[in-house]
């Protein structure tokens, strides 16, 4: 049995969770906060990052590595094409979203979502990089109707959890939804993917986790 460790407010946790649900892999969940110094956590995720999984073989960290492992270990319901080139193109797209969209937008999250303020330098860096990276994303993405083409793949699990964050963070901090400004109808895409049971489960659990954490914060 696989144990998914982390928490449901994490987009990378939800990316892995959506893959598990799509593939029908039995799993349990263990709530683990980021930056843990617990040796049991560090033995699986040396930097204390989430998500990670516990398997009968041991621990495994880094969301894209986990997704690729799950796809290889459970080939009955593939989330990448059988053709090696097409499979690589799906992974390329998923990696591009993670590294060149989400991680750039992540620098804006303290102000967009957590009541903080980011520096002028951080804002200008995001304002410079995001439009160029979004233009690159448009060269790779298909949206026909899925992000990588006519078949649901692991790239959709990545896009579903990340594109809304990129859009809303850029709007909140930079004053403009840079995905929409580039002509990407991400809301229609997210609504389309959101009809899948896996996406509905991820969204519901994320909402419940947000409400629980808000309640805990009020008690503190």
What does this structure look like?
The chain is of the alpha+beta class and 220 residues long. It folds into two domains: 2-73, 3-Layer(aba) Sandwich (Glutaredoxin); 84-217, Glutathione S-transferase Yfyf (Class Pi), Chain A, domain 2 (Up-down Bundle). The protein has ten helices and four strands. A four-stranded mixed beta sheet has the order 2-1-3-4, with helices on one face. The model has no long low-confidence stretch (mean pLDDT 96).
Give a quick set of tags describing it.
single chain; 10 helices; 2 domains; alpha+beta; globular; Glutathione S-transferase Yfyf (Class Pi), Chain A, domain 2; four-stranded mixed β-sheet; Glutaredoxin; 220 residues
Topology:
Layout: E1 2-6, H1 11-23, E2 27-31, H2 39-42, E3 52-55, E4 58-61, H3 63-73, H4 84-105, H5 109-113, H6 120-140, H7 154-174, H8 178-181, H9 186-193, H10 197-219
Parallel strand pairs: 1-2
Antiparallel strand pairs: 1-3, 3-4
Summarize the structure.
This protein has ten helices and four strands, in the order E-H-E-H-E-E-H-H-H-H-H-H-H-H. Helix 1 packs parallel to helix 3, helix 1 runs antiparallel to helix 7 and helix 4 packs parallel to helix 7.
How helical, in percent, are the residues? 55-70%
Major sheet description: 4 strands, mixed
Strand order of the largest sheet: 2-1-3-4
Note the gap between the termini. 35 Å
CATH overall fold name of the largest domain: Glutathione S-transferase Yfyf (Class Pi), Chain A, domain 2
CATH architecture of the largest domain: Up-down Bundle
Unreliable runs = none
SSE order: EHEHEEHHHHHHHH
Strand content: 5-15%
The helix tally amounts to 10
What is the CATH top level name of the largest domain? Mainly Alpha
């Amino acid at each position: 049995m696989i144990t998914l460790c982390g928490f449901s407010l994490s987009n990378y946790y939800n990316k892995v969770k959506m893959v598990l649900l799509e593939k029908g892999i039995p799993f349990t969940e263990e709530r683990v906060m980021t930056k843990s110094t617990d040796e049991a956590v560090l033995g699986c995720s040396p930097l204390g990052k989430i998500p990670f999984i516990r398997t009968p073989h041991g621990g495994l960290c880094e969301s894209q590595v986990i997704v690729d492992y799950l796809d290889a270990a459970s080939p009955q319901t593939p989330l990448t094409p059988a053709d090696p080139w097409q499979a690589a193109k799906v992974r390329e797209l998923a990696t591009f979203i993670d590294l060149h969209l989400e991680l750039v937008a992540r620098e804006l999250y303290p102000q967009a979502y957590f009541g903080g303020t980011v520096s002028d330098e951080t804002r200008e860096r995001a304002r410079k990089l995001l439009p160029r990276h979004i233009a690159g994303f448009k060269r790779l993405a298909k949206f026909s109707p899925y992000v990588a083409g006519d078949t649901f793949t692991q790239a959709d699990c990545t896009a579903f959890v990340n594109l809304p964050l990129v859009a809303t963070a850029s709007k909140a901090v930079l004053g403009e939804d840079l995905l929409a400004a580039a002509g990407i109808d991400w809301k229609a895409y997210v609504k389309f993917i959101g009809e899948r049971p896996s996406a509905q489960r991820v969204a519901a659990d994320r909402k419940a986790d947000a409400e629980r954490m808000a309640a805990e914060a009020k008690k503190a």
